[in-house]
Amino acid sequence: MDTLNNNRGVIIVFFALFLFLLLIFLGVAVDIGWTTIVRTHAQRRVDAAALAGASQLSSSTVATTRQSNAQTMAQTFAHYNKVVGTSTKLFFSSIRNVFGASETGSTTINVSATAYLGCPGVEKPPLPLALCHSAVDPTNSGTCDQVKAFQTPDNNSAFFAPPGMTINDSNCKGLVDGSITMPNIGSGDSINLNNGQLTSCLSEMEKQCNNRNCRVANPWCVIVPVVDGACDVSLNGTRTVLGFAEFCITSVNKQDSDKFVQGKLKCPVSFAGPSGGACFGVSNQNPVLVQ
C-alpha cells in the first residue's frame, strides 16, 4: 500500500477549516447586524428624548423648573438615566476569541442627539410697530424685560415699513387697517423706521384698540420686530431686525401732544413659526433635531 499517495480524509480537513471560517464570518455578520439594530433603536430613543426635553423649555415656569422638567422628560423617553450610551451583547465573541480576539462578550454603543428650540426668525407682524433692542433686553442677557413702550418721548419704539416701502403716515395707516398687505419680515431684514407722531396711523391703532376693548386687564398682544441698537432719536431711519417679541398694547393715545402706544412685553411666550432670530422672551414651541 502506497501511504504517501493516499488522499483519503483530506476533504474532512478542508471542510473543518472552512466550517471554522464560516462560523467566524457568520459571527461577525450577526454581531454587526445586531449592533446596528441596537444602535438604530437607541438613536430613535435619544432623538425622542432630546425633542421631548427641549419641548419643556418653552414653558412659562422658572428656569430651574424648566430644566428639571426637561431632564425628567428626556429620561422618560430615553429609558436610560443617561442618554449617551448602552451596552449590547455580542453573541459570537467567544468563537472569535479562540482565534486570538479579546472580547468581553458585549460592546458599548454611544449615541447622542441635540434638539434646538429656536427663536422666531420670520413673522408677518399685524402692526407696523417695532421696538429697539435696548428697551426689550436692557441688560443684554438674551431675555426680555417687561418695559413700557411709548412713541414719545422715550424713543424706545417706532413705526416701521417693510423693505422697499417708505414709512409715512399714509403707508403706516394702510399697514394697520390692512389696505396694504404686510409682507413677511425676517431676521436680518433692514426696515425703515419713524418714531414721530403719525396721526392717521395712531388714529387707526386707537380705533382697533377700542374695538378690542384693550386695557391692562385685556391687552392687545401682537408680535413685533426688535431692531438693533439703542433707543434714541436715531430710530428714525433704517435698522436691522434681530428677532421678535410679543408686545401687549394696553392703550393708544392720539389726543394729547405727547401721543403714544403703551403696553408691556409678554415674556416668555411660544412661537409656532420658523426659527432663526434672536430670543426676546419668544421661543419656538416646536423643537428640531440639529445633530
Q: Please give the radius of gyration in angstroms.
A: 32 Å
- Annotation field: number of helices: 6
Count the beta strands. Answer: 15
Helix proportion range? 25-40%
Q: Major sheet: size, sense and barrel closure?
A: 5 strands, mixed, barrel
Order of helices and strands: HHEHEEEEHEHEEHEEEEEEE
- Mean pLDDT across the residues is 80
List keywords for this structure.
alpha+beta, 5-stranded mixed beta barrel, two-stranded antiparallel ribbon, rod-shaped
SSE map:
Elements: H1 10-55, H2 63-78, E1 85-89, H3 93-98, E2 106-110, E3 115-116, E4 122-123, E5 129-132, H4 133-136, E6 157-161, H5 169-177, E7 185-186, E8 190-194, H6 199-211, E9 220-227, E10 237-253, E11 260-266, E12 269-271, E13 278-279, E14 282-284, E15 288-289
Parallel strand pairs: 5-9, 10-13, 12-14
Antiparallel strand pairs: 1-2, 3-15, 4-7, 5-6, 6-8, 8-10, 9-10, 10-11
Helix pairs in contact: 1-2, 5-6
Please characterize this protein's 3D structure:
The chain contains six helices and 15 strands. With 291 residues, it is of the alpha+beta class. The protein has two domains: 3-113; 122-289, no CATH class. The strands form five sheets. A five-stranded mixed β-barrel has the order 5-6-8-10-9. A two-stranded antiparallel sheet has the order 1-2. Strands 3-15 form a two-stranded antiparallel ribbon. α1 (10-55) packs antiparallel against α2 (63-78) and α5 (169-177) packs parallel to α6 (199-211). The longest helix is centred in the N-terminal third of the chain and has 46 residues, at 10-55. The protein is rod-shaped.
